[in-house]
Amino acid sequence: MTDARRITVHGRVQGVGYRASMAAEARRLGLRGWVRNRADGSVEAVAAGSPAALDTLVAWAHTGPRWASVTRVHTCAADGADAGDGAGFGVRGVA
Q1: 3-state SS of the chain: helix, strand, coil percent to 5?
Q2: Confidence (pLDDT) at 94
Q3: I need a surface site. Which of 63, 70, 83, 93 has the fewest CB within 10 A?
Q4: Domain membership flag for residue 91
């Protein structure tokens, strides 16, 4: 079964390797999708894959890499097509 989620992470999450770290974690979990910085200072991701892998990524998002300081994580259902049609997990620029 495949599910998809949009994840928005707030706090000190830009300039600390958050996107690259999240992409590496998502790849390790076998997810597809993307992560990007947002102009408001948050980080946004859309990930698709097994519900268990998505739960693990969301749990990871609450901490992130060691230099991050996460204050809030918001998740909601997403359309799997929003994750892209590729098999990998990529890093995008600023939205």
Answers
A1: 25, 35, 35
A2: 83
A3: 93
A4: no
Query: Annotated active-site positions, please?
Result: 19, 37
CATH of the domain at 62: 3.30.70.100
The alpha carbon dihedral of 12, 17, 20, 25 has a sign of negative
Q: How does pLDDT run across 72-86, given as a tens digit for each residue?
A: 999 999 987 777 777
Task: Extract the runs of DSSP E, i.e. beta strands, from 1-95.
Answer: 3-12, 32-37, 43-49, 69-77, 89-91
- Our count of domains for the chain comes to 1
**What are the CA-CA distances from residue 19 to residues 2, 37, 68, 73, 82 (Å)?**
23, 8, 11, 14, 17
